[in-house]
């Protein structure tokens, strides 16, 4: 299957990596000395992108909301523009890479919801053949248009697409591990909801860290650190853990093949975007769980609570102390997550190698350095 994907991508990725990174220089401020930001939603015409854009239109920290998709964004933008908030809305659409490059120009935050949704019986890994191109295209465009932007992926399989995006950002020479995120907030939102239902609480009162990845058994809620303390027994923990891990299938089955989780994912993503913006705005103690470049385990990517700041991740808070059951679950989960990451990195590196992208980028860098030297000599 992957060989077919490689063949389909070789011609496209060469064009995607062409171009030179453009420094960002437009930081907006309002009268209250708060920064206002440009946020771009890639996949804004889809089942997640539309409700997400609606929620982001209401975020007071967003100065400009830019929508991108292959189609539909003109109508979505017109609809959103009638909402009485000061956030400005614009749109780009089309299959040409230039439309994506233009949409991302000077973005402070790029949120990616584009791609094929999961269907009944489909694993997140099976989505790689259709959604890998999304990660590659966005990473390449971001490397040209907004190399300092925060880049947050909703599109599945997150466990694999985030490492793929990292490889392409490295080729562009703009990879910053503090600025790349896989959004796992939906797992936290679901856990808060299910635990609150069990304990008869307001979900807003519940806090629980979720570590690992964003598929099946790689999703590990840490009930020993639930706040307020979880009141159930071991069987309740096991049952709720399984429900949190399989909640995506619950929605897919309920929709009878007509879609996957969209509204809850949009809500969770809007919450995570808000946290990123609050971090950019230098608000103190903004903490969210996210799937990021990590050294807290032997794996290069792992979800843990992270402290957010003006440059993305201010501090990875690492693994919470685990009880025996949680430690065992972690050990059992690591091989599956490790295999996903290895497959993703090998996939990306094969596409890069087969397309001679590294060589092309080195040539582009050499030309750029030569141009800079010539310009400096002329100025002197």
TrEMBL record:
NAD(+) binds at residues 43-49, 69, 131, 154-156, 265. The keyword NAD applies. It holds the Pfam family Ldh_1_C. The active site is at 214 (proton acceptor). One of its GO terms (cellular component) is mitochondrion. It comes from the Eukaryota. Residues 368-380 have a biased composition (Polar residues). One of its GO terms (biological process) is malate metabolic process. Gene3D superfamilies: Lactate dehydrogenase/glycoside hydrolase, family 4, C-terminal, NAD(P)-binding Rossmann-like Domain. It catalyses: (S)-malate + NAD(+) = oxaloacetate + NADH + H(+). Its EC number is 1.1.1.37. It is an enzyme of class 1 (oxidoreductase). Residues 358-380 are annotated as: Disordered. Substrate binds at residues 118, 124, 156, 190. Residues 38-182 form the Lactate/malate dehydrogenase N-terminal domain. Residues 184-347 form the Lactate/malate dehydrogenase C-terminal domain. One of its GO terms (molecular function) is L-malate dehydrogenase (NAD+) activity. Keywords: NAD, Oxidoreductase, Tricarboxylic acid cycle. Belongs to the LDH/MDH superfamily. MDH type 1 family. Homodimer. This is Malate dehydrogenase. It comes from Drosophila navojoa (Fruit fly).
